[in-house]
From TrEMBL:
This is Protein Abitram. The keyword Nucleus applies. Pfam families: GCV_H. GO terms for molecular function: actin filament binding; actin monomer binding. The keyword Kinase does not apply. It comes from Chroicocephalus maculipennis. Gene3D superfamilies: 2.40.50.100. It is found in: Cell projection, Dendrite; Cell projection, Growth cone; Cell projection, Lamellipodium; Nucleus speckle.
Length: 135
């Protein structure tokens, strides 16, 4: 029932030999995802996220900055502080140690959320269509 937020294989940060220079969980002057303190079975204190809530900003060596969004409604359970000191693991191990955050959707919404997800094959077909339409 938990959702692990990672960079998609097709994300520009994982293409074209870019180097990630920094990760910043400070979303605004008053909001830092690092201040998220979760306790207990009901996950008290967890920040609530909407689909469009920014999780972090990632900067690359070419000066580009990318805002990574939650894309899912739920409670922020954990952010990966390891990527602050070693942002390269976002590229080296994006689907394991290089995760960005863990989000727990509301129980009633979790089934509808998972039904809306693409299978691996559907995702690859979307990427292929995107590639063909841009060339």
């Amino acid at each position: 029932r938990i959702c692990v937020i990672t960079l998609a294989e097709a994300h520009p940060l994982l293409q074209n030999g870019k180097t990630i220079t920094s990760v910043n969980y400070q979303i605004s002057a008053s909001c830092s995802r690092l201040q998220n303190k979760v306790s207990g079975k009901s996950k008290r204190g967890a920040q609530f996220l909407t689909e469009l809530a920014p999780l972090c900003r990632i900067s690359s060596s070419d000066g580009e900055e990318y805002t990574i969004y939650s894309c899912i409604r739920g409670r922020l359970i954990e952010v990966n502080e390891n990527i602050l000191n070693n942002p390269a693991i976002l590229q080296e191990k994006p689907s394991t140690e290089g995760y960005i955050a863990v989000v727990l959707p509301k129980f009633e919404e979790s089934k509808s959320i998972t039904q809306g997800l693409l299978t691996r094959k559907e995702y690859e077909e979307v990427l292929l269509k995107r590639l063909n339409s841009s060339s």
